[in-house]
Model the fold of this input.
Amino acid sequence: MKRIVILSGAGMSAESGISTFRDSNGLWQNHRIEEVASPEAWQKNPAMVLEFYNQRRKQLFEVEPNEGHKALAKLESAYHVQIITQNVDDLHERAGSTQVIHLHGELKKARSTVDPNLIYTLNHWELKLGDTCEKGSQLRPHIVWFGEAVPFMDKAVSIAKTADIFMVVGTSMVVYPAAGLIHYVPRNIPKYYIDPKAFHVHGIENMQVIQQKAGNALPKLVNDLLKDL
Ligand code: OAD
Done:
């Protein structure tokens, strides 16, 4: 089976009703996202950080995967598909994709502030001050914040190197190291970049830029890829 590797970002979930980070000026209650999603913010004002993610988690319990997520899940009938997402939602999984790496963490999980191996799945939206791990320490969102290491990056690089086809969907490609993944993809393989604001990425061979929404472009592209076999 050929291997398709997909790097997705916030635009993937936009048509499900989840706002992207940079389309609406990247502010939350007049804070820059980088100021909320950081270890410094957590030190200074953990209640505010919890509230930021609580609002996102609450919304996640209310939204559904869109046609783009569903199309990618269909690819598994004929390809080995690996999704590497910057998104912290679970919409790829809920659409049926089985191989999903979350580079920036997962909204529906919390983790201990004393032991990073203690990770808990949340079945409710609210994480509060006073919610603790089994060692008695405050729980934090299981999110990779600005300035923190991206634990699955090495794995993502290894996967990118093995791709026969590579897709980038709905990401502004400005946050590293995720945006650098494209440079590990074999030069000669077909690549697609689906994003209404996709720009022409310089120095990347065989890249077809599709300036459309994921929910429009992906069902068609997936049909073509399934026909091409
Ligand atoms: P951005 O908000 O930077 O970019 C979203 C991209 O989605 C933009 O290029 C839009 O043009 C595109 N877009 C909007 N609607 C779309 C649609 N219907 N179909 C396809 N594309 C669409 O989000 P990311 O690139 O994902 O990190 O941001 C990367 C990281 O920065 C996030 O994972 C997050 C953020 O801060 C952390 O929280 C650590």
Q: What stands out?
A: Residues 9-11, 14-15, 20-23, 33, 37, 86, 104, 144, 170-172, 174-175, 194-197, 213-214 surround 2'-O-acetyl adenosine-5-diphosphoribose (CB under 6 Å). The CA atoms of residues 31 and 37 lie 10 Å apart. The mean pLDDT is 95. The chain is about 25% helix and 20% strand.
